[in-house]
Design a protein that fits this description.
Layout lengths: L3 E2 L2 E2 L18 E2 L4 E5 L14 H13 L9 E10 L9 E10 L3 E10 L5 E11 L2 H7 L3 E2 L2
Length: about 150
Amino acid sequence: MAAERQPRYDGCFICGATNPIGLGLTFWQSETEVWTEFTPDERHQGYPGYLHGGILYAVLDEVTGRAAYLQGGWVVTGRAEVRYLQPVAIGEPLRCRGWIVAARSRALELAGEARRLADGALVATLRGLFVRLPEERIRQALPVIRAD
C-alpha cells in the first residue's frame, strides 16, 4: 500500500495549516505506521540552539496518537512517557513516527519515536495509553476535519 496523507484540523497546533502559531506538519500513513518530518527553528528552542523538549513531546504525542487512525479510531492521551535520548539542535530535521502496540476495548497502547534524518540516530521515544473517543464526539468534530 502506498503512503496516504492523513486528515487535519486547521486549528490544531501541530497540523493546522492556518494556525498562525502552529507547526503546520503533514502526516502520512502506511498500513502499520504514521509519520511526519519536522525541522525545528529558532521559535522552537528552549536552551539556546536546541529544541525545547515540550515541542518535541507535542510532535511525538500527535504522531503517536494518530496511529489510532490505522484502526479507524480517534483517541486522546491518557498517559504518556517520553524519554529524551539526545539533544536536537535547531535546524536539524527529524522524522517522527508512531504505531500501535496493543488494542484494548476502550484504549490503545501506542508508541512513537523521533530520529535525526541525517544519521538515523534515535533522539526520543514515547509510549502511552490513549483513550478512544466516543462516536458522538467524533461525529461532532467531523465538520472541521479536512482531508486535503
